[in-house]
Specification:
By secondary structure, this protein is α+β, with helices and mostly antiparallel strands. 33% of the residues lie in helices and 13% in strands. Keywords: Membrane, Transmembrane, Transmembrane helix.
Length: 253
């Protein structure tokens, strides 16, 4: 039975059905384990099931583990003049596109990690999570593109291998930096401002006195102004606290 197209279009190959077989739609390729129907005539001896994008036949390799109609059995060295070079170049071009997508993923992860570290005290964790999600999506896309030509007998280049290793190391290093930087993935308490500063926060303590607390946590009052004389606090001030030689005027917050 001939189904719908299943082969990737990254490398343009065409299935050539033998005489007497049903016609195949454009882009169709047998799935692993596919077998022709018993009533179909046997293909002629040495039939080329695959053509390159220029219509040059690719004879099957002598591989006992793969049927001749399996794309992975196509011998890239058996096409006509220039056919091998064209197919190999298309495979390598697809891998180059996959590597570019992978490098873009590494750049996105690295930029997100750097931005998250710089903005650790201002919501850097959200930036890191968003960048990581985009980076993972790009990496998956690169992997799928690379896998689309995995059946071709074309060895990856040394530069491609080095690119993947270096890129993975850079991404892991950036992730480690982001995860271990305080404030990116964990919440940190805001440091106490100098007591004399306007805007410091205060809370009622169990012993009945006021104590300064971080403004990021529960608090009841905030210093609205610091004066040299407590009598100069605004009428709206709820309490006045002594701040060394000066006074902080507290308002409810």
């Amino acid at each position: 039975m001939i189904g719908s197209a299943t082969w990737s279009e990254e490398v343009r190959m065409r299935f050539q059905a033998p005489p007497g077989w049903p016609p195949t739609p454009d882009g169709w390729a047998p799935e692993p384990g596919w077998e022709p129907e018993p009533q179909w005539p046997a293909p002629p001896p040495g039939w080329a099931f695959w053509l390159d994008d220029h219509g040059m036949p690719l004879r099957p390799r002598p591989d006992a583990t793969l049927p001749p109609w399996d794309l992975r059995a196509a011998d890239l060295t058996s096409s006509g003049p220039g056919g091998t070079d064209r197919v190999v170049e298309e495979v390598r071009a697809t891998r180059r596109r996959a590597l570019r997508t992978f490098l873009l993923a590494v750049v996105v992860v690295g930029a997100a990690a750097g931005g998250a570290v710089l903005a650790a005290d201002a919501g850097g964790g959200l930036l890191w999570v968003a960048g990581l999600a985009v980076g993972v999506a790009l990496a998956v896309r690169a992997w799928r593109r690379w896998r689309s030509v995995a059946g071709f007998d074309v060895a990856p280049t040394a530069l491609g291998r080095v690119t993947v290793v270096v890129g993975l190391a850079a991404a892991v290093g950036a992730g480690y930096l982001a995860f271990t930087t305080p404030g990116v993935m964990t919440t940190t308490s805001s440091p106490l401002p100098p007591p004399e500063s306007v805007g410091s926060c205060w809370q009622d303590a169990p012993d009945g006195v006021l104590e300064q607390v971080p403004c990021s946590g529960p608090h009841a009052y905030r210093v609205s102004v610091v004066v040299s004389d407590s009598a100069r606090c605004p009428a709206a001030s709820t309490y006045v606290v002594t701040l060394g030689a000066r006074f902080g005027c507290l308002v409810e917050d």
